[in-house]
User: Fold these one by one.
Assistant:
Number 1:
Amino acid sequence: MRSNGSDKLSARKIRDGLGTRFVGQNVVYRECVASTNALAKDLADEGAPEGTLVIAEEQTAGRGRLGRPWLAPHGSSLLMSLVFRPRLQFSRTPQVSMICGLAVCDAIRQTTGLLAQLKWPNDILISGRKTGGILTETCGGSQYPQYVVVGIGLNVNLDPQTLPTHFAATSIARELGQPLPRLQLLQELLYRVEARYLDVCAGVSPVNDWSAALETLGQRVHLTTMRGSWVGVALAVDEEGGLLLRLDNGQTKRVLAGDITLSEH
């Protein structure tokens, strides 16, 4: 499923014709890193400007939420992190992650025609199978966060058969039936991230759009958190990204983070 050598990325290629004001205009490209999020956080600590893109062809210690490994053969995927410095109250910083998820769905639809959806809280799905994920890390400040780093891993030309079966993953190329030039998708993604981010910074909430993109809502789910497990119907999400779950006893439970699977009962 891997595309040919012309698909190789570079900082120059990414910036050429990008059309953004700041997102992706400062590019840190690496053939291989331990983790794009870790490098982005180091650069943010050193004063990297807002919109800095850290992108790699391969990660040796890529991770998803809860420290899970993220596996992707060299050159097969988009493995990237973005640095944001939003002047937002801490309660609104989850909206930065929301807009990145929405931008991924927008970009996939625009470049391929495929319908991508989101699974609460941070998975990207095509045909109900995981195609990507988002890992957001916030560094504290006083009134506003010092910075927010959003990591995005997206299976583009990856062959899902190279992954362990329990990953239950797919890729854009698998769903499309052919390889996809990663540069085209990346530039579309960066453009849409910036547009949605500027809206959030102007006070526009992305929650309605995010809610509409979540395949989780309306489903009977099994939710597991560090504090326990529950079964119920996923009703809605709120401005902070919390999930409202209607339990079988009629109570409504609000959860900010956890793992969801569809419930058979």
Number 2:
Amino acid sequence: MPPAVRFEHYGPVEVLQVVDVERPTPGPGQVLVRVRAAGINPGEASIREGRMAERFPATFPSGQGSDLAGVVEEVGDGVDAFSVGDAVLGFTHDRASHAELVATEADKLVPKPEGVSWEAAGALFVAGSTAFATVRAVGLSAGDTVVISAAAGGVGTLATQLAREAGATVIGLASPEHHDWLERHGAIAVRYGEGAAERIREAAGTVDAFIDAYGADYVELALELGVAPERIDTIANFAARERYGVKTEGSSSAANADVLRELAARLAAGRLEVPIARVYPLDEVQQAFRQVEARHTLGKIVLRP
């Protein structure tokens, strides 16, 4: 019986357990994937803790995880796009990718390009689709200046690169230990915290757009900087949409194979990097989430079954 992460009730990381489960069977239109890498995301911690129960309720026992990359183990009826042995990357909406075997729909998978690591492929979907959606939401083009909060995080690192590719000047808010990475990827790194507005003005002058990948009071900071609400996108402060008229476009706005295929092609061409902070074995899922929830990691943390 293959192992998978499960939790029986809402709670801290200690509720996460790795247990043996029944082998998944791919239904019509589905593919069974033997997972080689699966990214983890802050939103999964919020779901596990019950803080998003109204929007994303859990059915117990609950699995966990969306991102995945691996090798096709079996195909269901009607699947022509993939064959046993194909290397793929993609996602599942069934909270199931933190496992050895995952059954997901074929249209949620794309071929993994040669030369792209399992870790980068397995961490791409949530952060990549979210970053793609945020950059699109604020309408970046050449000559714009955009501020990105949590610019060194999983979403922020990818949004920084996509915004630079769109021709924008990027002001990346991050702790000083991550400034070197941001600057090497074309951003102007600025320390977050008290006095950030003054430091941003000194670095950039006028700000045209703001991508908030952290929450807290960053929407208010964007408004203080004079950014129009329609050019502010937050993936963490959903109440700000009603209060200020800002956007809250994230992963669900770009969660499709076309976007994933485009991001994977950029990875393969060296036009996009998914920085991997650390890879944990599946049975160290608790330790992995402790690191994620500390929110000081550069890039992504990955599980390897």
Number 3:
Amino acid sequence: MSKNKFDFNRYKITNGKSFSLSEYNPKEKDKEVEKSDAKIICKEDIEELSKLQDVLYASKKNSILIILQGRDACGKDTTVKHIMSGVNPAGVKVTSFKSPSTIELEHDYIWRHYIALPPKGEIGIFNRSHYENILVTKVHPEYIQTTKKIDKKFWKNRYKQIRNFEKTLIENDTVVLKFFLNVSKDEQKKRFLDRIDDSSKNWKFSSADLKEREFWDEYQKAFQDAIKNTSTNDAPWYVIPADNKWYARFLIGGIITDVMKKLNLSYPIVSEEDKVNLQKAKEKLINE
């Protein structure tokens, strides 16, 4: 199968008005995409991404923000590890957002995310992100420290604030890529059991994850509302079927690579004066 013929846009949500999460099957995989072919293409994408990142780092014209959201055990960590395996660590920063600290709670909820943004020339990955403030907090509104009434207007304002935040980033040359790793309840159960049975993975399991699983339906509704209200042409969501890890990696790697290629990145142009100085430097080194 040729990757060029594959339509990644089928997973892209630019207008969420009619979005329904129930229409997206976590187990889906294209029948024309064989696992063996996908692994080869994914390897090629990793190599291509390494080259693109090198030019991105040199040009300092854009920054890339990759947002990964999903249920516990949806594969966010392994996706980062796999897709970014070939890039220069100096140009990539992964931030995993946990419960906010006391200092972070003294600021607005976007503050800690803003200061973690990648500078121009670099790729930033948010493993969980500012979206936790309309996901976890929507399921557990008791976590919110505010004097404002938490009602439909409150959430409507938060969606607007997040859209404005991302709009500002895009207008200042940051490419925003948002991935929702859509895992099924059955697959999550399987992965939880694997973490319990495999001693090398015990550290990954938390009883808190099991507690949050009890709110499955509430989280599904929160994810649907978030995608519906924050998908735009410039900052779309990609809903990735995540039950098959190899297929999820194929999709995410392909999308990131394709988007970066469309930036038409190039190395900085050296002036004629600099070229002359380079030759002088070369001659001096040769004649040492």
Number 4:
Amino acid sequence: MEIGLIKTFQELEAVRTYWERWQNHPHNDFDQFKMVCQLRPEVESPFITVIGHNSQPLALLAGRLEKTQFAPPIGYLTPVRIPVKVITVLPQGVLGQMDEEMAMKSVHFLWSLLGSGVADAVEFFHLSEDSLLLRAIRLYGSGWFCEKKPKWSVHWEMAIPEQAEFLKYKVGSKQRWKIRKRQQEIESAFPGKISWRWISRVDDVPGLCARLEEVAAHTYQRGLGVGFMDDEEHRRRVALFSSHGQFRAQILEIDGKIQAFWIGTLYQGVFYSSATGYDQDLRAYELGTLVFVRMVDELAREGVRKLDFGTGDAVYKQRFGDRSWREGTVWVFAPTAKGLVLRSTMGLFSAVDKFGRNVIQKIGILDRLRAGWRRHLAPRRSSADPE
């Protein structure tokens, strides 16, 4: 078995045929990966581990070499930021048929690169708890320099049956009544001005992104630096997936102005939710729920049979989701003085974060603190999470 490294776009093109044959998620889409590497200023180069036999690739581990900042969180806060060079392994970064031996060799290979000074750490994004890579890190990772107990997050997905308007029958009668009531209330409040649009093709990408930005700029996600943003990367991503017939958006307009949206990517029969937003002034109408119900009906009409909510254990995901699993971001640090400092900092901050969460949960104010912090991040509007 052979193992090698790709760090240039020319070398990347050499494995493009294999990559595109194996890609199965928006995160590991070849064109999007290349676009991100070219657009983000912190990215120094692609960083692809190639495992093969007789010069034939059998599996790829997709990543980027980045100059960034190490900022372990305590809750929503990031008290310190340390300049680092990191090998970032993508979520769903494994392409091809990677077995346990390949996973072990990949971890050993990356560890040897850290030892040679290529980077200060490797960050494995969102490894599921049954991941072969996580198993290899736990079994073969080097003691103190490997984070073997990540902070878990929950990833939810929902099956979409063929039954029309199935979501109304999935919830209880009280919730169905509430959805109908909110729909009637907003139609009565804005008679003749309500318009629902299902977008599967975008002819004017800058125009749509500018209109979405009017809502997204005031969500709490913006305060955290996540969610939709009208920048070059998001415009290019919308254009890319729209050109492939994969972009989808459910839009609520009132008097011609977007007041709520839910966007995502339809990829190999699965809808991957990516961003939401709504006008906080209309919060009483529970726009998140109304948009979600409309969107799922449209997906069902298209024959989509699965919706991936992504990570996060929001109440609406628990309510509508059918299946969940745990994921964690795992760090492996270089066996250097700086690597030791980074590992010690992460250990300390993780302990403080865990202690604080346990205390807050015991006194029963976690939800109130979370809601208060989100209001602080979004002074006028909030996210479109369904109520």
